[in-house]
Amino acid sequence: MAFERIAIVGAGAWGTALANAVARAGRRVTLTIRDQANADAIARARLNPRLPDRKIDERVAIAAASAALLSVQDAILLAVPSQHLRAAASLIAPALAAGTPVIACAKGIERGTHKFMTEVIAACAPAALPAILSGPSFADDVGRGLPTAVTLAARDETVAAALARALGSATFRPYHSTDVRGVEIGGAAKNVLAIAAGIVSGRGLGASAAAALTTRGFAELFRFGRALGARPETLTGLSGLGDLILTCSSTQSRNFSLGIALGQGRTPAQASAAAGLAEGAFTAAVLVELAARASIEMPIATAVAAILDGSLSVDEAIENLLTRPFRAEG
Length: 330
Known about the structure:
330 residues, alpha/beta, 13% strand, globular
């Protein structure tokens, strides 16, 4: 399991950054792009407009996606948004050799089906070996080669460890795990909580409130994860607490930026337009539905979902949270 040939499907900022990271790891990496004309233009410029000012490593091959190209890959990274992952997995499915690792690099839960990312891959590409890559990482940092640590999980520990070695380098450090569901839950839930943290910032509620929100948000994430079988060490690790800390404290996070815009008084539509694609906006309602189904209390996530669907104003949500009954910490 050397995993020498690796393709990236999804040529946005994250896919481009990952291509650079895989090239630094010494693998034969191909960044696939939907159409030939765009592939040729990006190959000539060695620059992707989705990740401006970050040159694409010369070792990265750039090509239009094709069955012939995908069929010879040792592993494939799906670097597309969570709600587009089904389409991407279905597209590559016919080209996959049996047992090819397909690694989801999105953080979310599919709307409608309530499926996590590896479940979507398993449903759409039965020949694939699903895996998940998640953790505290911004595309710009990874693209520049700044030190970053993430978690890579697959059901088979041997496969997870081999993939981590294949993608890892001095500046991109994947820690391997078999707790696939725990890694997926951390990535999905923290995006919703980051919106709440952004609202606190945008409303000017202060550093103390921000610390309280992040801490109580993590308590929600932890409760949800444990109820769905996640391991405590995963939830307190890079893909859980680590990613939550990052996205609740930086405007590089689109989810945090979305929350800031909401806190400043913009409508959900206006805030979404200002922040760009924020995965948490699509995940919030699904997360709350799953929590309700399992009788898990998640008041912060519930407030975010209500603000996003317009059933609650920011001020009403804050008042509801601040007037909850006093209780023991836990």
